[in-house]
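[Discussion] Sanity-checking designs against the backbone

I'm trying to build intuition for which residues belong where. Below is a structure token string of 404 positions. I'd appreciate it if someone posts a full sequence so I can compare it with mine line by line.
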């Protein structure tokens, strides 16, 4: 049997799907599992979006589209992204549509770094695991910047200034953030932009897929700050806002890199699904009632789960500013029940209490001095949230008595 490449052997993964496989295996055995491990809305796509897809199918929209996407969707996405970001001068030709937002992580790295040249990419830690895996797979050097609980899971701009070198080519920002739900405030972004102005060789990948799920204030992008628009790759999409994860539609904007991203798509996926593109056009341009209801529901669930988790002995939980994740600190709970770390806690919680969550190590190396954390996705029913946290509290209480 021929060998596979080192690159393929070492390619990282998204552990949410690994844990989901564990959950499904237990469910097949008849175990009752409450799952908080997958980050996707638990709503159907809006009815008008579904109908638009049916019209596209019946209307013969079955073939390839231009690699950058259909003109109608590029124009709508340009207007939508500009409107969400203070009227930025985004033109339809600056927008590229892909099969989800995730491929643009790779395309951005491929377009701003050279393989094996020592080019560095700074990315958030903890963070979406595909950042690090794609940096490594594409031959760049990963440089994590630590997020701190005391800063509501933002990083210290002074640390960014220390990390940037002449070989830094890309900075990845994610706000609202997966896995912590943290957000970068305008003040944070202004401090980051002031540093970047000293380093004109650094591009910014602004992963803003949760932009419509920002709760604390009106969403603000680093691209809105002076001198930042031209060097910022704005990444958004249909998945989170309109519950369209499986439809696989993302859209990204940058005036210089749009033609480059288009060539990458031609070389890889050819184009996004034409049917999904027409559905996404309806999502953006049609009624927004369903999206507003989903956002309101997620906000209610956030308040519910944060309150419940803070009532569990040994657990503290910050109030996240966006997305649909919480990142509770379980350092004391781990000590109380005598487990080594959050990963052992997670495994036992799943197998003994039937509650599926992710551990901090699924999102990068633990930040020194920050303790142990879990990620809950609260894209789950209120009943599931109440029952799941109650099971967790019972699990900790039971095993605290045993440890004592």
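Best answer:
Here's mine. Compare freely.
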């Amino acid at each position: 049997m021929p060998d596979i490449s080192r690159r393929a052997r070492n390619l990282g993964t998204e552990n949410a799907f690994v844990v989901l496989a564990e959950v499904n295996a237990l469910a097949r055995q008849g175990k009752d599992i409450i799952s908080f491990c997958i980050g996707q809305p638990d709503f159907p796509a809006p009815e008008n979006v579904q109908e638009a897809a049916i019209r596209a199918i019946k209307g013969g929209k079955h073939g390839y589209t231009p690699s950058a996407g259909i003109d109608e969707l590029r124009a709508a996405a340009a207007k939508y992204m500009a409107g969400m970001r203070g009227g930025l001068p985004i033109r339809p030709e600056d927008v590229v549509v892909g099969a989800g937002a995730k491929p643009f992580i790779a395309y951005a790295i491929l377009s701003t770094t050279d393989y094996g040249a020592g080019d560095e990419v700074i990315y958030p830690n903890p963070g979406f695991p595909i950042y690090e895996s794609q940096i490594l797979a594409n031959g760049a050097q990963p440089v994590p910047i630590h997020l701190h609980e005391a800063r509501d899971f933002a990083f210290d701009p002074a640390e960014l200034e220390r990390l940037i070198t002449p070989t830094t080519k890309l900075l990845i920002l994610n706000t609202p953030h997966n896995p912590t739900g943290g957000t970068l405030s305008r003040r944070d972004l202004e401090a980051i932009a002031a540093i970047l102005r000293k380093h004109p060789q650094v591009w910014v990948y602004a992963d803003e897929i949760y932009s419509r799920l920002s709760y604390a204030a009106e969403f603000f992008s680093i691209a809105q700050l002076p001198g930042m628009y031209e060097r910022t790759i704005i990444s958004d999409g249909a998945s989170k806002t309109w519950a369209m994860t499986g439809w696989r539609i993302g859209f990204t904007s940058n005036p210089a890199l749009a033609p480059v991203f288009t060539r990458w798509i031609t070389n890889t996926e050819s184009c996004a699904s034409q049917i999904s593109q027409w559905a996404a056009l309806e999502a953006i341009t049609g009624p927004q009632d369903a999206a507003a209801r989903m956002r309101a529901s997620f906000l209610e669930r956030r308040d519910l789960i944060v309150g419940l988790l803070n009532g569990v002995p040994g657990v503290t939980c910050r109030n996240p500013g966006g997305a649909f994740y919480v990142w509770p600190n379980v350092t004391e709970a781990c000590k109380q029940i005598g487990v080594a770390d959050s990963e052992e806690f997670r495994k036992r919680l799943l197998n003994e209490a039937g509650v599926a969550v992710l551990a901090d190590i699924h999102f990068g190396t633990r930040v020194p001095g920050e303790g142990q954390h879990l990620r809950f996705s609260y894209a789950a029913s209120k009943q599931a949230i109440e029952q799941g946290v109650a099971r967790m509290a019972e699990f900790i209480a039971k095993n605290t008595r045993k440890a004592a």
